[in-house]
Fold this sequence. Notes:
Blueprint: H1 16-24, E1 30-31, H2 63-75, E2 85-88, H3 91-102, E3 108-112, H4 117-125, E4 129-133, H5 135-139, E5 150-153, H6 167-179, E6 184-187, E7 212-217, E8 229-233, H7 238-249, H8 254-265, H9 269-295, E9 299-300, E10 309-314, H10 320-329, E11 332-333, E12 335-336, E13 351-355, H11 361-390
Parallel strand pairs: 1-11, 3-4, 3-5, 5-6, 6-7
Antiparallel strand pairs: 2-8, 7-8, 9-10, 10-13, 12-13
Helix pairs in contact: 3-4, 3-7, 9-11
The structure holds pyridoxal-5'-phosphate.
Amino acid sequence: MEPRFSARLTALQASPIRQILAVANRPHMISFAGGLPARECFPSFDLKVPPAVLQYGPTEGDDALRERLCEDLVQLGLPVTTDQIVILSGSQQGIDLVAKLFIDAGTCVASESPTYLAALQVFRFFGARFAPFTPADVENGNPFRERPAFAYVIPTFQNPTGYCYSDAERKALSRACDRETIPVFEDDPYRDLAYDPCDRRPVCAYLQKSPWIYQGSFSKTLAPGLRLGFLAASQMFVPHLVRLKQAADLHSNRLSQWLVLDALKHPDREARLAAIVEMYRRKRDTFDRVLHEYFSDLAHWEKPRGGLFFWLQLKVPIDTRLLLDSTLAHGVAFMPGEPFYVGSSPQPTATLRLAFTHASESEALSGLKILSAQLRRFRDEACVTNRALSHP
Length: 392
Ligand SMILES: Cc1ncc(COP(=O)(O)O)c(C=O)c1O
């Protein structure tokens, strides 16, 4: 007899990112697909592990790490104390916990569209409906078409667009949430990767009335394999989030917590971060130059001021999921734009996301050349088909 799975399982689609990454990791594939940090940026650790670290620990996370994070978050303007901080097994876990906290079948979630597709995947799994908004809606002062259970937002170097909200947009979003006391869930894994000056004060730091959850990650500036992130939240949410985490994994990996605390306290921390930022800035500038060489007639884009991604809006209305099949056959992987939009079966959006941090500069050069050649072929075929349709 076939096992009977939960009804919820039918809502869980395989992550397009994981599927593409599986192919992208093949030898000789040039990948712009995943938001992977450059391997050269990983720290080296001196491992003399205190035995206490190998014991079970508190669900909220180790006190010394929480205290240290609390100091940093207060500097950012968040009104927190250590007891409001919960260490996470990657900030992906924060998304899962927040979904469990708020979402039943049919619950409305306000979210940017496009947005981080693995968040959409989790929210959908728990039955969310979406009320999409864009930074332009925020600026107009009325981003929410209906009252959501919470607003999910990535204001700093957004995934996938790379967009960074201005101070005025941050204030406008906080005012819109405060007006109806809408809880804010701010996801901020890229904030330390800033290549140009820009506003980065958390939206949560501007809130006067709305409760909030703010989360960060050590994946992009230390190492994703550590699987460590953190959240800080309004007092009213903390006991629930801790109970949900306890049910999920008891606590996060204590060895990782110990390593991360060591890295945060290291006297070279600022210099290390500055070196990573400098290296990524160089990669971003090279990528932008190569894009201008090969894509000027094919796409529009903004040079991102931080984070890991270029977001291309193509000048021809093609489905980039189909383009991916042909570029993979030529050894280049990228992320089609469609899965980042909130619709469940998105129409072709003629958008694509390119991660610029993982590929070497020479891979960027040859990979973008191949990608542009395939795109040109698609464009020319689309023109022929359109001509044939208009002159049968
Ligand atoms: C916006 C956003 N949130 C959360 C995550 C998850 O990060 P991690 O679980 O590695 O901390 C990512 C990863 O790319 C992301 O882009």
